[in-house]
Write a structure and sequence with these properties.
Layout lengths: L1 E4 L5 H9 L6 H17 L1 H12 L12 H9 L3 H19 L6 E4 L5 E8 L2 E5 L8 H14 L3 E5 L10 H10 L3 E3 L3 H10 L9 E3 L4 H10 L4 E2 L7 E6 L5 H12 L7 E6 L2 H15 L5 H11 E5 L3 H11 L3 E5 L2 H10 L5 E4 L5 H6 L25 E8 L2 H17 L3 H8 L4
Parallel strand pairs: 1-11, 4-5, 4-7, 5-6, 7-8, 9-10, 9-12, 10-11, 12-13
Antiparallel strand pairs: 2-3, 3-14
Helix pairs in contact: 2-3, 2-8, 2-9, 3-8, 4-7, 5-6, 5-7, 6-7, 8-9, 10-11, 16-17
């Protein structure tokens, strides 16, 4: 494990350099731009070409969409234990996210005019669900459920297929459970392009949601403006802040859980108040690595993306966390310290408190969506919520009496900004 020490004169630069490893290199940017341009011009033909090139799937355009009968069959044939797990997770996600459903409101401003906000679901949304070697079945629940709560009339889901054109049955079952019937066996940059620009067989969407690898995340960034995007949730990240009360075996297990995504671009941070913790966790990592099935790819992530950070105080740990803005933050510290850190760390995507709250609970079942910002974008993005699937319109209503009260203010601003027609448009009503 590479160790950075907050007492070092080069610490700030060393940490910044490590974080910059999450920046998408120019070759990925250029590759993504070329694919998007091709999809924009050739449509279905380009989508099929890249599905064959990257997924090995030889698909005709009419085969992009999964049949409704296949979705229903996947749910019907799902083992009962898996059904119960999905239903339990769905129940928690619904309960949590219903609490954040925005409500229309009206009030009187200082002039006595009516003002307020009304909320409308975004008409057509596109949800990206990573597939391939690690089909993220839980992402269906963590995205589509929120779109349903928001009331989006059209919800289209995109996920890659295997070389035979099949989508993981658990994925299809989850989609059926949530009530999604528009599903495309298309993934990667070509899926983002199809969502943004539309093709003959895939209608364009208004906003794109969901996590993805570095290519998908970069594609979302490049199509922003043509369509909306939720945030930039790319390769997974975790930061564990550990003091003397942390259990080293728990810490190691959680670092491995995030590293096993295995794209090679994950970022894993262990912030510890003692060198001993760092040493004990290092030992545990090597011991537990032998127990997991994706050990080879996980080891590569540990080699390239793991850093241990020794801090001389939890106050310094707060500084580190607020700079990194980690996707997942675990606080394995004493309870009083955890409460303080939860208030002071303001950029984390999600915070897990205590030795018994691993990130995996948030990934699968706790309630909040696991779609969270990465690559330091937590400084300005938050985790996915129902409000992201809606748009807000402000409402203003003046009458003959209240417009006179607003006239004086408008006249002053119109004069300052040399916009006399603005001032006149109010004054003509205030006579």
């Amino acid at each position: 494990m590479r160790i950075l020490r907050s007492s070092s004169k080069t610490f700030a630069n060393d940490l910044a350099e490590f974080c910059r490893g999450a920046i998408v290199p120019k070759e990925i940017q250029d590759s993504v731009a070329a694919i998007l341009a091709d999809v924009r011009v050739r449509g279905d033909e380009a989508v099929a070409y890249y599905a064959a090139k990257f997924d090995g799937a030889k698909l005709r355009a009419r085969d992009f969409r999964v049949k409704t009968a296949d979705l229903q069959a996947a749910w019907a044939n799902l083992p009962s234990a898996e059904k119960k797990a999905m239903e339990s997770a769905h129940e928690n996600v619904v309960a949590f996210n219903k609490k954040s459903l925005p409500a229309d409101w009206t009030a009187k401003n200082k002039h006595g005019a009516d003002v307020g906000e009304i909320f409308h679901p975004i008409h057509r949304v596109g949800l990206y669900v990573p597939g391939g070697q690690v089909p993220l079945v839980s992402t269906v629940i963590m995205t589509a459920t929120l779109a349903k709560i928001a009331g989006c009339p059209e919800i289209a889901v995109f996920t890659p297929s295997d070389p035979s054109g099949r989508v993981a049955q658990g994925m299809l079952a989850a989609l059926a459970m949530v009530g999604i019937d528009e599903v495309y066996r298309v993934g990667g940059v070509q899926a983002i392009g199809a969502m943004a620009y539309g093709t003959a067989h895939i209608p364009a969407v208004d906003k794109v949601f969901g996590p993805g690898n570095a290519y998908v995340c970069e594609a979302k960034r490049q199509v922003f403006g043509t369509v909306g995007i939720d945030s930039l949730p790319g390769p997974s990240e975790v930061m564990v802040i550990a003091d003397e009360l942390a259990f080293p075996d728990f810490v190691a297990a959680d670092l491995l859980a995030q590293a096993e995504h295995g794209s090679g671009r994950e970022k894993i941070y262990l912030v510890a108040t003692s060198e001993q913790i760092l040493q004990e966790v290092t030992t545990e990592l090597q011991a537990q690595l032998k127990l997991i099935t994706r050990s080879e790819k996980t080891q590569k992530v540990l080699n390239d993306g793991l850093v241990g950070i020794h801090v001389d105080s939890l106050a310094k740990a707060v500084e580190v966390a607020n700079y990194v803005a980690p996707e997942h933050l675990e606080l394995m510290v004493k309870e009083t310290s955890a409460k303080k850190l939860t208030r002071e760390i303001t950029t984390a995507g999600a915070i897990m408190i205590g030795n018994y709250t691993p990130t995996a609970l948030g990934d699968f079942t706790a309630g909040p969506s696991h779609v969270l910002p990465t690559g330091r974008s937590g400084r300005f993005f938050s985790g996915l919520r129902v409000a992201d699937f809606q748009r807000r319109t402000s409402i203003i209503h003046y009458d003959e009496k209240t417009v006179k009260k607003g006239n004086e203010v408008v006249a002053a601003f119109a004069a300052m900004e040399k916009l006399d027609a603005h001032g006149r448009s109010v004054a003509i009503r205030a006579r």
